[in-house]
Amino acid sequence: MLGPRQEFQSALFYEFNLEDHVPDDHLLRSIDRFVDLGDMRSHLRPFYSDIGRPSVDPELMIRMLLIGYIMGIRSERWLCDEVHVNLAYRWFCRLDLGDPVPDQSTFSKNRHGRFRESDLFRQLFENVVARCIKEGVVGGEIFATDASIIEADANRQNSTPKEDWDVSSLDPETVPRAVREYLNVLDDAAFGAASEVKPKFTSHSDPSSQWTGAKKGPAFFAYSDNYLIDTDHAIIVDVEASRSIRQAEVGATRTMIKRTREAFDLYPEVLVADTAYGSAENLNWLVNSEGIMPHIPVIDHSKRIDGIFEKSDFVYNLDRDAYICPIGLPLYPAKKVYRNRKTPIAADNMIRYRASKYDCEECLLKKYCCPKDPSRKILRHIYEGARDLARELSLTDAYVDSMKRRKKVEMLFAHLKRIMKLGRLRLRGPNGAKDEFLLAATAQNLRKLAKLIPQPA
Ligand code: SF4
């Protein structure tokens, strides 16, 4: 039987409980168990005035921001509209049906003001990591690190070529916030001081962002999102924003390792990373300063494809401080003393080991060893010991396992861009990038916790 037409008729009274209308298996219900904003009010109190109108509840705004990152809602205006109409979002925000939703301008003011000044997002992120540790999903033994390039909110049309860019012409009093932040981080190792090389273009709207052609396709302005993860369950134990250049990314990893130790007393035994982190300096820092085993491919330019003996055909003898060539003769450090420095170490931190000219002249293997030179030369980095250790580790089964674990950090970045839609930043400046990366990492950890620890039946 055809039912009667449904006519809209507003009731005078409703008996409605939001709790009953959010499904038990809803993602936000699962996540809500792990969101603890109890001490947030006391943390923020010094940043609010004692007089004036009461503010919008900061916990409400944080919960709304979390929804935005968890559900991939990138626009604040859209987020406000969604919270208005979505029952599950209202439930997560502790809003009843009739409660007003803060508007988008309130968000902007707080994000760029109190939340940033109080470092609230870092505190929120660290609270969630602490919860992950408490729940036993952080092993703390094998960490992995990587960086992903995230497009900045800056366009090529609004930029200046490096020859025309003049920092001294910027007046900190009159420039926009993102430019002021750029001036503040000029000496910061993750930004201005990361490299002497000037970028080809500098954006007017967000000068800290890096002009990069690292991805295939046209170059663009970007920041790097650096993750340090525990590889047991891919929990992000730290996150850092930096310029999109290798030196800044390696520096960010060092910052994260130190900060994780201070914040959570985590001392990883192994760090897994790709070749970008395999410089001699970085391997030496890991091995000799931090006592961390590097499961990292070594950056090695000594490979030959012309049939000439490679460096690996020469064996280093520590006692004699000499390389032994394939016919058993020694190569000793060059006696050359560099200008102004009485050391065999060159400016590139390399020591040149040379065979005797007389030995090589007589040698039957010379055409396979040094056909164009009077004698063979081998370069040894001052941190070659750490490089050798990394090479030895790369032959172990544990290394093979680590390379599989490394995929987890790449998957987190893929998830970040595809599901959470963080392909392009909405906030400008180093602080904007930092805030967005912290919130996104917090959301990813919360999603992971909800997945790993099912709701009790
Ligand atoms: S050419 Fe010189 S360094 Fe090379 S194998 Fe012969 S003696 Fe040794």
What labels describe this entry?
single chain; 457 residues; alpha+beta; Nucleotidyltransferase, domain 5; 3 domains; six-stranded mixed beta sheet; five-stranded antiparallel beta sheet; 17 helices; 13 strands; binds iron/sulfur cluster
Rounded to an integer in angstroms, the radius of gyration calculated over CA atoms is 28 Å
Estimated share of beta-strand residues: 5-15%
Catalogue the unreliable spans. Answer: none
CATH architecture of the largest domain: 2-Layer Sandwich
Helix/strand order, N-terminal first: HHHHHHHHHEEHEEEEHEHEEEEEHHEHHH
- Say which CATH homologous superfamily of the largest domain is assigned: Ribonuclease H-like superfamily/Ribonuclease H
| Distance from first to last alpha carbon | 39 Å
Shape assignment: elongated
The CATH class of the largest domain is: Alpha Beta
Based on secondary structure, the structural category is alpha+beta
Which small-molecule species are bound to the chains here?
iron/sulfur cluster
The figure for the number of domains is 3
CATH fold annotation of the largest domain: Nucleotidyltransferase, domain 5
Biggest beta sheet summary: 6 strands, mixed
- Number of E-type strands: 13
**Individual helix count:** 17
